[in-house]
C-alpha cells in the first residue's frame, strides 16, 4: 500500500471514529471505562455499508466509494463542513458549493390573505425546508421571535430546538419536538442530499445535542392533525387543534393553523394574542 489520498482518507476517518464520544450516539461505554470511539461495525451500520467494506476503506484499499457513501459516513461521524469537504476531496469528488443563506421567497398575496383571515387563530406558512415564510398577527403574539429573528434564521426546527421561549411554552416539549422532526424527515427524503438540507441538519447538530439524538433516532411520521397545548406567559393556557393545509396553487407551501378547541377557553385567550 502506498501513501496517497486513499490512505489519508482511511487514516482521517479512523481518527474521527476513534475520537467520537459514545454518549453522543446514546451508546454505552465499551467495557467499563472506554467512553470514546465508535466500533467499525457501528459506523458501518449507521452508514448503510458492510463492516468488511468499511474496514477496507479505513485501510486505504483500492476501492471506489460513491459520493453518497462518503456523505453518509460524514454525516454519521458528524464531520464539520470543512472536514466533510476534505473527505470528499480525498475520495476524488469536488465538494459542493455551500448555499448562501437567503430569505424565503415572498408568499403569494392570497396565501398571506388566508393567514390574516385566520386571526385570531395563529397560522403560518412553511417552505419545503421549514423556513417560516409568512405568518399572521396571532402567530406573532404566540411566538414573538418570528418577528425579531433575521429572515434567514426563521426556521421552525431552529426555533423548536434552540429558542428558550418556545421551549418554555411547550409542556410536552420533548414529544412535540421529536414529532415535528419526524414529520420533517418524512418530507425531506427527496432532498436529503441537497445542500440546504445538509446545512440545516449540520447547523442544528452543532447547536443542539437534543436535536442530534432525535435526528439519529431516524423516526419518520406523516403529518396528522393533533391537539397542541401551550402555556403562554401573558395569556395563560392555550389548547388548539393543529391543522395543515397545502394550497393547490402554491404546493410548495404548507399553511399550518392552530384552531382553538371549543371545549377550552382558548378562543377568548387567543384574541389577546393580537394585542401582545
TrEMBL record:
GO molecular function annotation: DNA binding
SUPFAM superfamilies registered for this protein in UniProt: lambda repressor-like DNA-binding domains (SSF47413)
Origin: domain of life: Bacteria
Matching Gene3D superfamilies: 3.30.450.180, lambda repressor-like DNA-binding domains
Annotated ranges, domain HTH cro/C1-type: 12-84
SMART domains: HTH_XRE
PANTHER family per UniProt: BLL4672 PROTEIN, BLL4672 PROTEIN-RELATED
Name of the protein: Transcriptional regulator
Amino acid at each position: 500500500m502506498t501513501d496517497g489520498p486513499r490512505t489519508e482518507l482511511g487514516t482521517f476517518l479512523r481518527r474521527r471514529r476513534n475520537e467520537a464520544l459514545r454518549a453522543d450516539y446514546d451508546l454505552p461505554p465499551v467495557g467499563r471505562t472506554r467512553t470514546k470511539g465508535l466500533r467499525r461495525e457501528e459506523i458501518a451500520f449507521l452508514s448503510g455499508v458492510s463492516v468488511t467494506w468499511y474496514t477496507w476503506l479505513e485501510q486505504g484499499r483500492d476501492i471506489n466509494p460513491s459520493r453518497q457513501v462518503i456523505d453518509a459516513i460524514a454525516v454519521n461521524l458528524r464531520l464539520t463542513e470543512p472536514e466533510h469537504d476534505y473527505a470528499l476531496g480525498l475520495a476524488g469528488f469536488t465538494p459542493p458549493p455551500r448555499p448562501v443563506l437567503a430569505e424565503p421567497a415572498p408568499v403569494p398575496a392570497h396565501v398571506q390573505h388566508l393567514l390574516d383571515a385566520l386571526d385570531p387563530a395563529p397560522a403560518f406558512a412553511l417552505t419545503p425546508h421549514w423556513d417560516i415564510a409568512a405568518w399572521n398577527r396571532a402567530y406573532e403574539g404566540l411566538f414573538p421571535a418570528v418577528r425579531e429573528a433575521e429572515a434567514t434564521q426563521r426556521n421552525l426546527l431552529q426555533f423548536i430546538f434552540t429558542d428558550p421561549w418556545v421551549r418554555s411554552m411547550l409542556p410536552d416539549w420533548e414529544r412535540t419536538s421529536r414529532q415535528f422532526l419526524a414529520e420533517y424527515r418524512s418530507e425531506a427524503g427527496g432532498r436529503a442530499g441537497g445542500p440546504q438540507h445538509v446545512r440545516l441538519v449540520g447547523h442544528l447538530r452543532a447547536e443542539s445535542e437534543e436535536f442530534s439524538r432525535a435526528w439519529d433516532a431516524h423516526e419518520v411520521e406523516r403529518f396528522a392533525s393533533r391537539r397542541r397545548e401551550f402555556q403562554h406567559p401573558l395569556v395563560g393556557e392555550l389548547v388548539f387543534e393543529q391543522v395543515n393545509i397545502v394550497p393547490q396553487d402554491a404546493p410548495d407551501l404548507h399553511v399550518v393553523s392552530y384552531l382553538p378547541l371549543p371545549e377550552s377557553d382558548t378562543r377568548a385567550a387567543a384574541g389577546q394574542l393580537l394585542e401582545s
